[in-house]
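User: Can you write out an input/output pair for a complex, sequences first and structure second?

Assistant: Here is one pair. Inputs:
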Amino acid sequence: MSLGNSELILNPDGSIYHLNLLPEDIATTIITVGDPDRVSSVSKYFDSIEVKKQKREFRTHTGHLKGKRITVLSTGIGTDNIDIVLNELDALANIDLETRKVKSNKIQLSFIRIGTSGSIQPNIPVDSFLMSASAIGLDGLLHFYESGQCTNDDLEKKFDEFLGWSSHKIHPYAVDCDKTLGDVFTSNRIRFGITCTNSGFYGPQGRSLRLSPKIVDFNERLAAFTYQNQRITNLEMETAGIYGLAKMHGHRAVSLNAILANRATGEFSKAGGKTVDDLIKYTLERLVSSDLIS
Ligand SMILES: O=P(O)(O)O[C@H]1O[C@H](CO)[C@@H](O)[C@H]1O
Ligand SMILES: O=c1cc[nH]c(=O)[nH]1
């Protein structure tokens, strides 16, 4: 079946609608960052850069580092953008843009998010690195897809039972990271936890400037949840969407967080730039020494 013009949308030069990319522009290893300015903070460490493209907040650089081809792409903020980025990157890999048909031999992509995040546990300090072993999405993105076997239904259920937030119209979905890809970044420099992804930075992360929150003890309630000796450790805005859409498409994903805020102690990092740069260097070092990445 050929995909119609209003479903698979291409620009006049044949590139995919929002990302403005052609199939040959991307590597199978893709680092996602939120901030477009963080793209060059990653690609400045490449030995060479062959592609530099941008449309809206989606900036892409593809290059080589120690023989590995790597793409770094900015997603902007939020799982609404993740829906665009993951669907369009998969289309570049697995749909023939000329015939508009899904290819029979699928390519598996590896997504590594390098993002910032706020801890909700007092013992996860600012400037630490944290891998999201699992992610719980409160944003709703996955509810629009047939997610099949991709979700961690037990975690979802226990979370729902503990918090009882369906009365607030909050319906969680939970997805685990790709264990094999996660192993590449596992070391004593990195902590692990359950990341909570939500649809905003203020109310949806328990912040209140002038507006009153509906759930007053939002972060404290999240922080009190335990599942198989793990806790919800941090809040951000993309990971659960990336994990869900990657898994449903048959790709791998892992999310690495630079903890810039500690919401339990009220601290914010004074060295955020350095912490993010350290996480970028850590990620690239682990990537180039891994056999999983070609
Ligand atoms: O630093 P990035 O990757 O953008 O990630 C975090 O920072 C943004 C909010 O400030 C959200 O996108 C959140 O997920
Ligand atoms: O508290 C924080 C810090 C960074 N990014 C977030 O989404 N939340």
